[in-house]
Write a structure and sequence with these properties.
about 140 residues; two-stranded parallel ribbon; two-stranded parallel sheet
């Protein structure tokens, strides 16, 4: 999530620990939103357009929130929890900082919990920042 409170927490922790922040954003697959009856060439074009838009928005986010750091973000495509866990397995971060939205009941059942899956399966320690009730910059719509 592009949340100011999450960014602040990650940056403050990195400063105290002498670490760096690598922002990671995962673009959910179109299969989450597009019916399976759509022609594959149309779906492929839509997916490419989504990734281009996400790259543009993510680059703008990095320039705005990490201008002095020259932070290099990682843009992935797939199911967010799985992609973050695969990336963490390869990159071996000292810690993962992620948002939690405090969803409960039906909402949690429908949307799932990316943070919960990361906490359960990550090899690295995970710090969650509660975003319930926070207002911030929304993630890209692309």
């Amino acid at each position: 999530d592009y949340q100011p409170a999450l960014i602040s927490a990650a940056r403050e922790l990195a400063a105290v620990l002498g670490a760096t922040v690598t922002p990671v954003y995962v673009v959910a697959p179109l299969t989450e939103y597009v019916e399976h009856t759509e022609p594959q060439d149309i779906v492929a074009g839509m997916a490419a357009s989504r990734m281009q838009g996400a790259r543009r928005d993510f680059d703008a986010f990095l320039r705005e929130h990490f201008p002095e750091d020259g932070a290099r973000g990682v843009l992935l495509s797939g199911r967010p929890a799985e992609e973050i866990l695969k990336y963490a397995e390869k990159s071996r971060p000292g810690m993962i900082v992620t948002a939690t939205h405090g969803r409960r009941g039906v909402e949690r059942m429908l949307y799932g919990s990316v943070a919960d899956r990361i906490i359960r399966y990550a090899a690295a320690p995970v710090l969650t920042v509660n975003m319930a009730g926070q207002r911030g910059t929304e993630a890209p719509a692309s």
